[in-house]
Amino acid sequence: MALTRSALKLFSGRFAQACQARGYADAPSLSLTFAAPAQVLYNNAAVKQIDVPSFSGSFGILPAHVPTLAVLKPGVVTVYENDGATKKYFVSSGTVTINEDSTVQLLAEEAVTVDSLDASAAKELLAQAQNQLSSASTDVAKAEAQIGIEVSEALVKACE
């Protein structure tokens, strides 16, 4: 029992030091860099919050978020700007890096605004991907078709 109390005291002291070092109360916004190969959407811009789709589950990023590296799955990234505006982008895949200093780097393979998506084109793309899967004869072709279905389904959902 005495060992447990000593361990708790040690842990709580280090936790308090870590909280002070990270400055949880001092980070009013995030610094976001959000880019795709053909464009930079945000370049060290101050934002309130970011919601991202991840293979480990969708999650929100707030100031002083625990440092994280995650893979983005196809879906909608929502950026809550400091002026109250909300912008939504569809990403096909990519990575997100959350640093200890409340900087976030979001690198997408493709990123487009949700309002520029065409629901009928997304449904047509999904049908094509499903046809490719049914006619695929190799494991590689099946895997590529399955990726196409996953992206297309996320596109259709984003259009709703």
UniProtKB/TrEMBL annotation:
Q: Does the keyword Ribosomal protein apply?
A: no
Q: Which GO terms describe its cellular component?
A: mitochondrial inner membrane; proton-transporting ATP synthase complex
Principal location: mitochondrion
Q: Does the keyword Disulfide bond apply?
A: no
Give the residue range of the signal peptide. Answer: none
Q: Where is the F1F0-ATP synthase delta subunit C-terminal domain?
A: 117-158
Keyword annotations: Acetylation, ATP synthesis, CF(1), Coiled coil, Hydrogen ion transport, Ion transport, Membrane, Mitochondrion, Mitochondrion inner membrane, Transit peptide, Transport
Domain ATP synthase F1 complex delta/epsilon subunit N-terminal: start-end pairs: 31-111
Q: Which Pfam families match?
A: ATP-synt_DE_N, ATPD_C_metazoa
Record localization: Mitochondrion inner membrane
GO molecular function terms noted in the UniProt entry: proton-transporting ATP synthase activity, rotational mechanism
Matching InterPro entries: ATP_F1_dsu/esu_C_sf (IPR036794), ATP_synth_F1_dsu/esu (IPR001469), ATP_synth_F1_dsu/esu_N (IPR020546), ATPD_C_metazoa (IPR048937), ATPsynth_dsu/esu_N (IPR036771)
Q: Which intervals of the chain form a coiled coil?
A: 119-146
Q: Which PANTHER family match?
A: ATP SYNTHASE DELTA/EPSILON CHAIN, ATP SYNTHASE SUBUNIT DELTA, MITOCHONDRIAL
Please describe the quaternary structure of this protein: Component of the ATP synthase complex composed at least of ATP5F1A/subunit alpha, ATP5F1B/subunit beta, ATP5MC1/subunit c (homooctomer), MT-ATP6/subunit a, MT-ATP8/subunit 8, ATP5ME/subunit e, ATP5MF/subunit f, ATP5MG/subunit g, ATP5MK/subunit k, ATP5MJ/subunit j, ATP5F1C/subunit gamma, ATP5F1D/subunit delta, ATP5F1E/subunit epsilon, ATP5PF/subunit F6, ATP5PB/subunit b, ATP5PD/subunit d, ATP5PO/subunit OSCP.
Write down the HAMAP family for this protein, in alphabetical order.
ATP_synth_epsil_bac (MF_00530)
Regarding protein family, the annotation reads: Belongs to the ATPase epsilon chain family.
Role, per record: Subunit delta, of the mitochondrial membrane ATP synthase complex (F(1)F(0) ATP synthase or Complex V) that produces ATP from ADP in the presence of a proton gradient across the membrane which is generated by electron transport complexes of the respiratory chain. ATP synthase complex consist of a soluble F(1) head domain - the catalytic core - and a membrane F(1) domain - the membrane proton channel. These two domains are linked by a central stalk rotating inside the F(1) region and a stationary peripheral stalk.
Identification of the protein by name? ATP synthase F(1) complex subunit delta, mitochondrial
Q: Gene that codes for this?
A: EOG090X0JDB
